[in-house]
Specification:
Number of helices: 11
Bound molecules: NADP nicotinamide-adenine-dinucleotide phosphate
Helix content: 40-55%
Shape: elongated
Strand content: 5-15%
């Protein structure tokens, strides 16, 4: 099985690197195409990829084509690819907002999987939600899941609407966590800790809380109840967050991302 990754940006290379570890592929079975010569030179230095700069030299040979260019490059790319693609090829797109129907119509093919990754894929801790066209077989979906799982976890959703919804939670979510981390680091600095110490205090607090959450069957609400005793320090902090409506604001932010994903999808 040969996989072609189109677009050697952050995400394209993350998946190419992840997939190179998959048992489903042999090392030299990953081709990477980009229009930037500099990026291809970098890719060429990575032993197991074939770096290619012409669609004619890679699209016809591929069994799976991974689309990882920015959405605004899709139209031009598809025009140039259309005469080279074959109906049996499987397309996996991670382009935000680009619908399955748009890809099917623009390329004249049917087998499309639309996926939404997130940034921690770069360190093998990503969450990729995905949905497929009905023409994609069970066996093909099994392969897709195996490839997506090489960058973390994958989650199959019922419809493209859930891809937009997962954009609001896991897709954009790492930035919400960074926002929270930055605020806590700012507070630590203001309390007199150095930058390095602030970083350790905050990062280990996040890692520890997530680990507790993952290893037990309690909701975040239950954990808050456990840790906040009446009249104590944690209760003072949680009361302050409640008074300031922080929870509602985070929900609103997630919905802003969801709504924006829906809006972007209307263009394609
Ligand atoms: N980054 C994330 O966290 C994230 C999350 C979810 C979804 N995504 C999706 O992932 C996709 C890739 O994002 P990215 O951040 O990796 O983008 P990126 O860094 O811009 O990488 C895209 C690469 O594709 C190249 N390219 C553009 N048109 C091409 C063409 N016709 N043929 C060959 N190569 C072409 C670009 O070259 P030039 O630079 O020369 O244009 C660039 O090197 C996007 O569609 C985005 O919506 C990203």
């Amino acid at each position: 099985m040969k996989v072609l990754v189109i677009g050697a940006g952050n995400m394209g290379l993350t998946y190419a690197t992840g997939m190179s570890k998959s048992k489903l592929l042999k090392k030299r079975n990953i081709m990477v195409l980009d229009k930037s010569k500099e990026k291809l030179e970098e890719v060429g230095k990575i032993a197991h990829f074939d770096a290619i700069d012409r669609l004619e030299d890679c699209v016809p040979q591929a069994d799976i084509i991974f689309l990882a260019v920015k959405p605004y490059h899709a139209e031009d790319l598809f025009k140039r690819m259309k005469s080279l693609v074959k109906p049996e090829q499987l397309f996996i797109s991670i382009m935000a907002g680009v619908t399955i129907k748009y890809i099917q119509d623009a390329l004249g093919i049917t087998k499309v999987v639309r996926a939404m990754p997130n940034l921690p894929a770069q360190v093998g801790q990503g969450l990729t939600s995905y949905v497929s066209a009905e023409e994609v077989s069970r066996l093909e979906l099994f392969m897709v899941e195996g490839l997506l799982d090489t960058t973390g976890k994958s989650l199959r959703v019922k419809s493209e609407n859930y891809i937009d919804a997962s954009t609001g939670i896991s897709g954009s979510g790492p930035a919400y966590v960074f926002y929270f981390m930055q605020s806590m680091m700012d507070a630590a600095l203001q309390m007199g800790f150095s930058e390095n110490v602030s970083k350790v205090l905050v990062s280990q607090t996040f890692t520890g809380a997530v680990e507790l959450f993952n290893q037990n069957n309690l909701t975040p609400d239950s954990w808050m109840e456990r840790v906040a005793s009446k009249g104590g320090t944690t209760r003072a902090a949680l009361d302050s967050m409640k008074d300031n409506n922080v929870g509602e604001m985070i929900k609103e932010a997630a919905f802003a991302a969801f709504n924006r994903a829906v809006e972007l999808g209307e263009e394609y």
